[in-house]
Design brief:
Length: 83
Amino acid sequence: MKVAGFLIIGILALAVAAAALKIAILGILALVLLALVANPRQTLGFIVGLLYLGALGRYPVPTLILSAALVAFAAIEKHRSKP
């Protein structure tokens, strides 16, 4: 019976931890939505920056090549737009 009691307590503790994690994730999502409403440009820039860092960590060479191509394209367009 003692083992069954420990097992039930362990399962209950895991259920409470799972519920707390779900509430924390919902809170974070609510804060992100609030930030998107209050400061959309900064929030989207931050999200894009996080995505860039994730891609850089997972695929470093293609990300750096793509970054160099984007910088070159922006420089060419900036040069073309000058009167």
